[in-house]
Specification:
Elements (H helix, E strand, L loop, with lengths): L6 E7 L4 E2 L4 E7 L3 E8 L5 E5 L7 E7 L1 H7 L9 E7 L6 E8 L2 E4 L4
Parallel strand pairs: 1-8
Antiparallel strand pairs: 1-2, 1-5, 3-4, 3-6, 6-7, 8-9
Function: Catalyzes the hydrolysis of 5-hydroxyisourate (HIU) to 2-oxo-4-hydroxy-4-carboxy-5-ureidoimidazoline (OHCU).
Keywords: Hydrolase, Purine metabolism
EC number: 3.5.2.17
Length: about 110
């Protein structure tokens, strides 16, 4: 395991063709309800490389992206004011990267590397 977080993200704004800087992201663990683990904001490259610790216990996690605030800064409306991505962390020795490609009216995600 490296020094980076067990789970990371990268947000790109497809409508602008640029990194989505300043998107707030919360990481939560499902255990008797959702329990916040960490929260960070994307950097100038749209990345968060320190979302949570270097190791997470196996479980179901949710990444919540505050897209309403991001689009609101440019006075752009969005159909998706919040994006919740739920993932399962099964292997403690693997890195999990969850990128988002977004626009005001669409988004896509996949397990990255």
């Amino acid at each position: 395991m490296t020094d980076r977080s067990h789970i990371t993200t990268h947000v790109l704004d497809a409508a602008n063709g640029s990194p989505a800087q300043g998107v707030s992201v919360e990481l939560a663990l499902l255990a008797d309800g959702w329990n916040a683990v960490a929260s960070r904001t994307t950097d100038e490259q749209g990345r968060i490389s320190d979302l949570g610790p270097a190791a997470l216990e196996p479980g179901i996690y949710r990444l919540t992206f505050d897209t309403a605030s991001y689009f609101g800064r440019d006075v752009r409306s969005t159909f998706y004011p919040r994006i919740d991505i739920t993932v399962e962390i099964a292997a403690v020795d693997e890195h999990y990267h969850v990128p988002i490609l977004l626009s005001p009216f669409a988004f896509t995600t996949y397990r990255g590397s």
